[in-house]
Structure formats: structure tokens, C-alpha cells
Automatic annotation (TrEMBL):
Keywords: Methyltransferase, Transferase. It holds the Pfam family SpoU_methylase. SUPFAM superfamilies: alpha/beta knot, L30e-like. Residues 6-80 form the RNA 2-O ribose methyltransferase substrate binding domain. The lineage of its organism: Bacteria, Pseudomonadati, Bacteroidota, Flavobacteriia, Flavobacteriales. SMART domains: SpoU_sub_bind. The keyword Transferase applies. This is 23S rRNA (Guanosine(2251)-2'-O)-methyltransferase RlmB. It comes from Flavobacterium ichthyis. It comes from the Bacteria. PANTHER family: 23S RRNA (GUANOSINE-2'-O-)-METHYLTRANSFERASE RLMB (PTHR46429:SF1). InterPro entries: Alpha/beta_knot_MTases, Ribosomal_eL30-like_sf, rRNA_MeTrfase_TrmH, SpoU_MeTrfase, SpoU_subst-bd, tRNA_m1G_MTases_N.
Length: 244
């Protein structure tokens, strides 16, 4: 987390949130007590700010200053409203291509995916506010600056975003090994949203129940799994191939 993109101190973080700053994630000392800390937690939940409990050692590494039990990272970008973005893309007359990241947690994977998304013409990336990778210095660096070119939306719930896309005539396809359908047999030459899962669990089972289609990549090795950013690249370039 770069120093210019962080706020430390409980009161400062509360005031930043109330002032409407784009707070990407807050790290809270897991054993911190007191009325001010209770107020911070209440504020985080009220404004649906992504936060996690961490040991004090992590906070000490993030800042040598008096953090008072909390450090926040400020997003270097402004996030987009999903309804407005979908409407803008549909009105553009281009074939829509969205990417949904379901609980992806690694900032470097996130950055790598954003970079590939920018190269393949993705119109927007949708992530959930809680539990998703932060947009921090690592994300910006790994994306090679693409994070400033691809619209990113933060939503309360991934499932609501999927319902909204489907209602807008956009087909949702989840990348999962829990299907017999090969990606190369799937029609990607249509208004589309591709859903990629987390590094360890894949796409949430409750999300798999509501998507329009499921598709997998063929695997011939003994490991039988790919890094999520690599798998995402394969899906996006197959989409590009079909659309070409």
C-alpha cells in the first residue's frame, strides 16, 4: 500500500468515509477496543466499506506512524455505477463484454486480469464490495496502468449484478470445471458477461445456480487447474476469436 494512498487513525478514517472518499479497504486491528473503534466498525458497515481484521504487526508494517488500530487504503480510481455503465455500453451499439470477478482476493491477479481485459476490449469489470481484492499500488503496477482505462464497478452483491445484466439482455457465462461444456463449444459472440471465481474456491455455488451458461477450459496436465488470471485470459481471447 503506497503511503500517498493511505489514511491512518480511526477518527481520520471515519471522517474520510463520511466525506465520501473512495475508500478501497480498511485494515482493522483484530483485538482493538474502545468507543471510537466501535464507531469506526459501525461506519464501515453502514457505508459497505470493505474491511478485514489483521494483527497489529501488519498495521505496523503498513505505517510507522500512530495508526491507532486502523489503516485505510484510498482507491487511486473512481468506481463506476453499474446501471449507468450498462446503459452507456448498450447505447454505444458495440457488442457488450463484461467481466465479473467473484471474490477474487489477490491484488496482483486483479491487476493482471485488468491488463488482459483492457487488451481484449472489456467494457467493464464488476466486483463485490466485500471480500474483493483492493485497487492498490500492486494492482496499478501489475495492470501496467490499464486500471485507469477499464471501468470498474463495485456492487453490494454479485448475484444482483448478474440479474441486472440478464435483464438487460446480456448472457452470463461462468468459468467452472463443474460442467461438461467446453469453452470452445460455447457461443461467446453475443452480449456477454464472463464470471471468474476466486483463486481457491472458484465461482460461488449460489452464483453458478443463476448464470445462463457454464463453461470450462480443457485440461491435459496432472495439475488440472490454471491461475485465475491465465484462465481469464483464455476465456477473453476465445471470446475475441469468435467475434473476429
Amino acid at each position: 500500500m503506497e503511503k500517498q494512498h493511505q489514511i491512518f487513525g480511526v477518527r481520520a478514517i471515519i471522517e474520510a468515509i463520511q466525506a465520501g472518499k473512495e475508500i478501497d479497504k480498511v485494515f482493522v486491528q483484530k483485538d482493538a477496543q474502545g468507543d471510537l473503534m466501535k464507531e469506526l466498525l459501525k461506519t464501515l458497515k453502514k457505508h459497505s466499506v470493505n474491511f478485514s481484521y489483521v494483527p497489529v504487526e501488519k498495521l505496523n508494517r503498513l505505517t510507522p506512524n500512530n495508526h491507532q488500530g486502523a489503516v485505510a487504503s484510498i482507491a487511486p480510481i473512481a468506481f463506476h455505477n453499474i446501471e449507468n455503465l450498462i446503459e452507456t455500453v448498450l447505447e454505444s451499439g458495440k457488442m457488450p463484454l463484461f467481466l465479473i470477478l467473484d471474490q477474487l482476493s489477490d491484488a496482483r491477479n486483479f491487476g493482471a486480469i485488468i491488463r488482459t481485459a483492457e487488451c481484449t476490449g472489456v467494457n467493464g469489470i464488476i466486483v463485490q464490495k466485500q471480500g474483493s481484492a483492493p485497487v492498490n499500488g500492486d494492482t496499478v503496477k501489475t495492470s501496467a496502468g490499464a486500471v485507469f482505462n477499464v471501468p470498474i464497478c463495485k456492487v453490494e452483491h454479485i448475484k444482483d449484478a448478474i440479474f441486472h445484466l440478464q435483464a438487460s439482455g446480456i448472457t452470463t457465462v461462468a468459468a467452472t470445471e463443474k460442467t461438461d461444456q467446453n469453452i470452445f463449444d460455447c457461443n461467446l459472440n453475443q452480449p456477454l458477461a464472463i464470471i471468474m471465481g476466486s483463486e481457491d474456491r472458484g465461482v460461488n455455488p449460489s452464483v453458478l445456480k443463476i448464470v445462463d451458461e457454464k463453461a470450462k477450459l480443457p485440461m491435459f496436465g496432472s495439475i488440472a487447474s490454471l491461475n485465475v488470471s491465465v484462465a481469464c485470459g483464455a476465456f477473453l481471447y476465445e471470446t475475441l476469436r469468435q467475434r473476429s
